[in-house]
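Progress report, Aim 2. The chain analyzed during this reporting quarter is listed below.
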Amino acid sequence: VLDTVNRVILPAIYDYVSFDNDIIIAGLNGVRSLYDDTGKQISNLQFTAISRFHDNRAIITNEDKSTSIIDHHGNIILEPMDGFSFERVLNDSLVLIKNALNSKVGIVNAKGEFAISCNYDEVKQANTFFIAESNNKKGILSVDESIVMPFVYDEIYLSYFYVVDGFDDYEIGENYIVKKDNLFGVIDPNTENEIIPVHYKSISTLFDKYYLVQNTEERNGLFLENGEALLLEEYIFYNRFEKTIFATKNNKPLLI
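Predicted structure tokens for the chain:
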């Protein structure tokens, strides 16, 4: 590894080198260590694989195939747990963990205590809640494993609202688009309600605060992010530009 003026940071003795921001991961014969951007070894820690750092934490695979959680100084902050493997570093000092016997997943906190037991096929952190899957159905859990929304949905999607008319600058809304029996709706986990009923052919976010719906008769309507109806399903939406929707109602063209 060379710096920008061709000074040697790490000599050419390694068969593996990768970078994670200011941290260099280098190894030889399958054993890797951490180095800073000057080439100084960060710690004596050795491992065979490492995830990317998230929130200053990463998962390493040890030579005995167990997993540990380390910080960016190379300190082990969560030792291996017998019969389990760490799968993903999450926000709020939480970690996704898998049971080695049945491959079910759950969540542990920074002390290695279970916040969500390993009873689920999948668990994804979503804002302050968790989208979990069990028996091919999805529901919403709180961090203490209380069921916020029941396991009756085929899919649960985050709501991405675009701050500007484009695909780069967006915010994730507090509500979720759900799919059940090939129909769509919107749920609010904070109130534990379906704020847009699950009877639409499709639902998508629009601009910075709207849900665009299409019913089974191919008619479009519009809801606010909180589920308040703005336009009944009396329109056909064709296109949009900036903050304008090109539509028809009763075969008459409209700009909305």
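The chain is about 0% helix and 55% strand. The mean pLDDT is 94. These observations will guide the mutagenesis work planned for the next reporting period.
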